[in-house]
Amino acid sequence: MESANINSKKSSTENSADQSRIPKFYKRSIEERLHLLREKNLITREQLTTLLSQQQILSREEADKMIENVVGVFGLPMGLGLNFVINDQPYIVPMVVEEPSILAAVSSAAKVVRKSGGFTADADDPILIGQIQLVDVDHPMKVQHLLLQKKEEIINLANSLHPNMVERGGGAVDIEVMIYPQSRHPGSMVVVHLLVNTCDAMGANLVNSMCEGVAPLIEKITNAKVYLRILSNLTDRAMVRARCEIPVDYLDFNEASGKEVRDGIIRAAEFAAIDPYRASTHNKGIMNGIDPVAIATGNDWRAIEAAAHAYAARGSHYTSLTNWFKNDEGDLVGTIDIPMKVGIVGGSLKSNKAVEIAHHILGVESATELAQVMGAVGLAQNFSALRSLGTEGIQRGHMTLHARSVASTAGAPADIFDQVLERLVESGEIKVWKAEEIIEEIQRKQHQKKVQTSKSETAEDMAFGYGKIILTGEHSVVHGTHAVAAPITLTMKAKVWAADKDVQLIIPRWGVEQTLKFGEDHEYSIYKSLEMILDRLELRDRGMNIEVVPEVPRAMGMGGSAALAVAIIRALDRHFQIGLSDNEVRELSYESENIVHGGASGIDNTVSTYGNLLMFQKGTPPEMETLNLEEPIPIVIGLSGVESMTAKMVRRVREEYEQQPDWYGEIFHKMDKLALESKEAIEEFDLKRLGRIMNLNHGYLNALNVSSPEVEELISIARENGALGAKLTGGGGGGAMIALCDSESSQQKIQHQMHSAGYDALITSIKPSVSKEV
Question: Which residue windows does the record flag with biased composition (Polar residues) (predicted)?
């Protein structure tokens, strides 16, 4: 058979990459697409004939040989994912799927990524685990020791059963012995893991037969009874990792700027990392890309799904399989870590002509290469879904065409057509009567609110307050000691525009759209704080809309409430041209913090106001000193996923301080000394010293009993993977921790390990101060 895949050696990568780009492919007929593939030498003459005559479809007789009780053949569309460049190699990716938009979405995503160099991917050896179960074991540690002593004998027996696999460089490579105490049966359960490199085969039957073959030997060694002998579909020894980096210039989408798309994707990814309900849908979207490739290439998509979801649930909670973050250059970075045990040889290739054609078009030469492609496709599909969710929305994209027709029929004027269309899609009632109702409402309120103008302005036009991390001095700073804190790149943004009456607070990401009722006993402190701010600025009787775009995670001890207050105060100052100084913004936001937290130190609102790396000491006025920093300090922020109730923790520490003033006073004194030493370490850029100070500071925070199991696990992960120092940041009881690193590679390693443990983690840095004055 003639060679025709796009991975053949070519004169240059650029020319090779052109093969994966077929502009306007979707506009051609099926016959035209097939002939075009043949012209580009992507399929053979025989395959062209097969596809034109649909001979690739299974006959009933062929299907009857594959499964039992056959009554017919079920068809699914096979399409092509275009534009992929992975490890500098172009790919056209066959995909079998019934859901509309997946092929278009994944091809669009790949087109964006290829502009910045394409995807990179790597994969582990294709290791499959077989499990041999021993039950009612009286002396499990002894059995474990005996089995490990006889490891070579067990491996040799397993490999003797499949010598051809060994000749190809595969076969059994190791064993593991796991002990599980049993509550409902005598003794313990011992499980032997047989680790098998299946090379380019899927390997299920091979591993099962090896487990069967070594079971008698294991019984003889242990004098215990073997029950189950079967492979595991949690293939976490065959991981694939893919990555892409996309400059914001390539991220403009519809009416959203590249920065808006980047930030929307990052926030959506954070949601999936923290919330298992969101993570389930997030990961389903990833598998929307991976499963179609698995089906097209004849792989067991159900096993791949099982492994992916089991891996996502390995930590404290079910979480996302991808991570999206911003690097120091402001580029969007996406990564995926997912089990991927696949094969390129086996019965399905011989029994299904469509699978054989798919492999020929894809042109991979090993199971490892196929895993890399599938990982990149999953990441591309995830990017496309998050981009849509963060801008126009998945459902909106499906409904917009119909909604346009309905809005036009209802007579929507040109100047409000887009507003009508948007509201119509949001309503879910794509009906003429609904469109007419929306038109009437918009026209009635058009002179009151300039909603569309507000929505069209970018986040850069909004006032903002910085989120923060505390390097040294949490809790003690409330009692008058020094502390060092730094701003982070995550902010709270706010904008104010006029209304005829009432004050309305709008925070779409939090589902807040509330008219402020002055004088009421507010359920949430944010409304009490807002009422105070409006009173102080003598704006109580002015009608307005206050819109907030939050980036700082809620209740994670990262200064979100202070940043929110600063953003709103600055937005009011800008809109009403009050002329507030930075110090007045700081003072007013401090009053807000006292309402929200009670007895606030003032450090959060100060950092949020000035955006500087500060040494701070509470007072009237407070002592504030901007610290000199010549170059950025690499930091990883780990999010526990447990809300940090700062007011509660501050109150508890205060109460215990009042009961034991000498003991707590001594701790606060030692924390004060550490804060002063951290200032010196920062200004001398002595990161090792700063790391030791952070570790000591966390020890004192533990003495105050303000940490949590999740934070402690994150700190252990950070320290075990090279962090110079790691500690709780903020009020505690959950929330966040920070890890001090010495390089970008260290940051990435720590972040990866935190993600592997089921936590979200952000890479950032402490940067030189934006102003020398406070």
Answer: 1-19
